[in-house]
From TrEMBL:
Its main location: cytoplasm. This is Inositol-pentakisphosphate 2-kinase. The gene is IPPK. Keywords: ATP-binding, Cytoplasm, Kinase, Nucleotide-binding, Nucleus, Transferase. It is found in: Cytoplasm; Nucleus. Its EC number is 2.7.1.158. It catalyses: 1D-myo-inositol 1,3,4,5,6-pentakisphosphate + ATP = 1D-myo-inositol hexakisphosphate + ADP + H(+).
Amino acid sequence: MELDKMDENDWKYHGEGNKSLVVSHVQHPRVLRLLKYPAEDSENPPQTAEQAYRQIQNIVDFSSNVMSSLLGEKFIHSGEVVKLPLEFVRQLSIKVQHQRPAWRCDKVMDIYSGCALCLPNLTSPALHQPTHTPPLCIEIKPKCGFLPSPKHVSKDIKTKVCRYCMHQHYKVANGKWKRRSFYCPLDLFSGNRQRMHFAIRHLIEEPQNNFKVFKGGQCIYSSKEGSDESPDMNSLLHHLRPYFLHTNNRMNSHVTSKAVLNDFIQVLVNALLSSGGGDGSVVADRQAEGRGFCEASIFNKERIRHGSRGLPSDSVLFRILQTQMLDTLDIEGLYPLYRQVEQHLQDFPKERTRLQIEGPYNEAFLEKLQKCPSENDGSVEYAVAKVHQYRVAMTAKDCSIMVALVPSSEEEEDNESLSSQRQLRDFRPPAFSYSASILDLDPKPFDSIPRQLRLDQKIVSCYLRTGGALPKGPVREKEDCTLLFHPM
Ligand SMILES: O=P(O)(O)O[C@@H]1[C@@H](OP(=O)(O)O)[C@H](OP(=O)(O)O)[C@H](O)[C@H](OP(=O)(O)O)[C@H]1OP(=O)(O)O
Ligand SMILES: Nc1ncnc2c1ncn2[C@@H]1O[C@H](COP(=O)(O)OP(=O)(O)OP(=O)(O)O)[C@@H](O)[C@H]1O
């Protein structure tokens, strides 16, 4: 990328979240991730160019020195900070404005610092040889996959119903989404294929900001925010069909939609359980049974036909869950330690640097959180280590997984020629090369912790007021999850 020859016409709007806007290059597999800030500050940027550069460098350092070590290097692409011509950024911001969803326009793209994060475009992977059939990339924001320990929480419901399921009631009550999603992260993280299948089916039904599908780098399936309509499942099936043209032991152009969806989900489950490019050796996640079920999940656990060995220890889900579980105290148990650190910093402002409250996110930071004593000895070092652990866990609870499915070349030849020889062969599931990456690994600010506590209280009280009183699903019984599932 020649930074002095940047042309806004080479870039197009790709997506955005709460704090960054992403544009992709029209030819090269690259994206630029630009910071956003509140629209009311648009005339008056909240930070200088140097501060913005530092913020993005902190993101790179946090991802490459801290999260990469916890989650596994093979899943992480930390990218690099780039300095862009201001005129290019200004033109880009004008160009993408009309494509931005209205509900994200309470924030504007930073056009003043000229800094951005340059990353590989994870929706245009170049796995193996180039293929005719574009890769499918599936983005999942799985959210928190475990229940907190009863030791630290004041409301019993938090040990029974997971945060995501409770939060759904709060989001619907506050108009963020029109309908509740019946996705439950505990099902996705269970390692049990039936439960994972069920969880993904519900992500597809109500994707919200937790599920997107890209084909050849274009988003072909996502929730339309603020819209009453469900996303167009028929259009998704239309896109997926050519990738899943065999069923009942036959290459078949009359595959039912249900079979296409089933195969798609099954391939996705395989990818999530695979080693993500490691040597394939698997140690089962033995703690899985203890994590159990969320009482709000509409998965019918009596239907489980196959026991689970839990998540393979080198799978992307296992690594994310382990990192999320660095939150051992829950926000309620953590908050007093946060206050202790805050008080210490008020008394000794210079300690902020030594304790690495805002970084630098280097090996010493990682060591601080990894060498945390197991018992609270009352020291500020213990409190800081727990706060650091909590912030890292928050990042892991808010990251996304991008699974890339590239049809293997043999499969493609089969699809293209519909060879009769292939029709006579025994059934095997569609062949894809998988890869998984983790995105959005930004550090969460130290001072976001009080907001976490307030939000937690609001979510729980809203659930107890509304959701807890309702039947588990307003119109559904616990669902029969075996209908769509055929064992591997
Ligand atoms: O608090 P949560 O669980 O609602 O998570 C926020 C996300 O909401 P979600 O529930 O996933 O729709 C929220 O996502 P959306 O804006 O809702 O798409 C952000 O990811 C936010 O992170 P940050 O403050 O921008 O760094 C997230 O905030 P953090 O709590 O991770 O800081
Ligand atoms: N490296 C990448 N390759 C392809 N697409 C990407 C990449 N990084 C981000 N995206 C897309 O851009 C969207 C927004 O990016 P991201 O999640 O990093 O934003 P954010 O503002 O940090 O999100 P959040 O709301 O979680 O704070 C993602 O959901 C994803 O679809």
